[in-house]
Amino acid sequence: MGRTRRNKPKRLGRKLLRIRQRLGISQTEMTKALGLEVHHSAVSNFELGTREPDLIVVLKYARLAKVPMETLVDDKLKLPW
C-alpha cells in the first residue's frame, strides 16, 4: 500500500507568527505560554513552516489567541485582527 500525502494548511505558519506578534512576546516566551518543553527554536520552525505543530499545540495557540482552532487550520479563514 502506498501512502498519500496529507493536506497541510499553507498559511498556518504565518498565522502562528501573527498570534505571537499580537501577544507581543518572544519565541522563548511563546514556548513557555504554550507549555512546551522544547527549545524555543520549535516556535521559529512552526512560524517558518519548516515544522508542523501537533494538534494539541495548535489548540493551545487558538486558545491563547481566543480564536476557533478552525481559523488556524483553514486557509480560507483569516484571523479576526
Q: Can you walk me through this structure?
A:
It is a single chain. By secondary structure, this protein is mainly α. It has one domain: 434 Repressor (Amino-terminal Domain). It contains five helices and no strands. Helix 1 (12-23) packs across helix 3 and helix 2 packs across helix 3 (41-48). The longest helix is centred in the first third of the chain and has 12 residues, at 12-23. It is globular and about 40 Å long. The N and C termini lie far apart (44 Å). The mean pLDDT is 95.
Summarize the structure.
With 81 residues, this protein is mostly helical. The protein contains 5 helices and no strands.
Kindly list the characteristics that best describe this protein.
globular; mainly alpha; 434 Repressor (Amino-terminal Domain); 81 residues
* Rg over CA atoms: 13 Å
Q: Which class in CATH terms?
A: Mainly Alpha
Mean pLDDT rating: 95
Number of domains: 1
CATH fold type: 434 Repressor (Amino-terminal Domain)
Uncertain parts: none
